[in-house]
Amino acid sequence: MVFAAAIASARPKPPNPIDLETRDGLYVKEIVVDWQVDDVKKAAEPGYADNKAEMIRQLTDSVRDQFQYSPAGADAVALHIAVRSFRRYEVVGDVSVVRLADQRALGTYEKIDGYYIGQVYGGGLLGAVVGLSSVPDPEPGAANCFAAILRARFNDLDAPHCNQL
Question: Is there a domain that residue 19 lies in?
């Protein structure tokens, strides 16, 4: 466990694509989820369309909650979430911050990876196997983790350990 933590902390934090002064002048007015997952094969699976719609709702709600009160600047932006990969316990995507006044992209936070592994079952490999085999719907923890990591990257903080959210 200590070894895994050492490896995780040794990875460099990605640079923030938006400078602090600009970030402080923003407020999030819109959240747009763009589903870019190649889901032609998955679309035929029972419940996939419902799970996809539920994950879009969860992502929108979780990101809105993270950015509801801050930053509190005057420059309205939209967060464009490009979902690249989706499983019921993980969502991966890039988030572009787009100023609404001129539709200019101010920066993109790449490869935000929100995940959730069966903490209810004690975490670890056994928790992952039991948890993932018993939860048919998208796990809300994945969207919450995605939003928390996005917020941490936006604020230039280290990403949280998502099973502790």
Answer: yes
Q: What is the pTM of this model?
A: 0.81
Look at residue 45 and tell me if it is in a domain.
yes
Q: What are the C-alpha distances in Å from 162 to residues 54, 98, 104, 153?
A: 20, 26, 31, 14
Contact call for residues 110 and 14 (beta carbons, < 8 A):
yes
By residue range, what is the domain housing residue 28? 15-156
Based on the structure, what is the number of domains in the chain?
Answer: 1
| pLDDT 10s digits, 63-95 | 999 999 888 899 999 999 999 998 878 899 999
DSSP code of 25?
A: T
95: in domain: yes
Percent with pLDDT over 70 in the chain: 77
| Cβ neighbours of residue 161 closer than 8 Å, sequence gap 6 or more | none
The angle subtended at Cα 149 by Cα 158 and Cα 55, nearest 5°, is 165
Question: Where residue 87 sits, what CATH number does that domain have?
Answer: 3.30.160
